[in-house]
Amino acid sequence: MADINITLSVTRAWWVMPYLQSVDLFCRLTGMEPDLNKVATVALRGFKVAIK
Length: 52
Description:
single chain, alpha+beta, two-stranded antiparallel ribbon, 2 strands, elongated
C-alpha cells in the first residue's frame, strides 16, 4: 500500500488577534455580549489554509 503525506498549513493575518482583543475589551467595558456569528465571520476572513 502506498503512503500518502499531506501537509496542512494555516496562516493568520496580523489583524486577527487585535480584532478579537478589541471585541473582548468593548464587551467587558459595555457589559454586552458580541454577536458570535458576526465575530466568527470577520475573524475567519483572516485565516488561510493551504493543503500540500
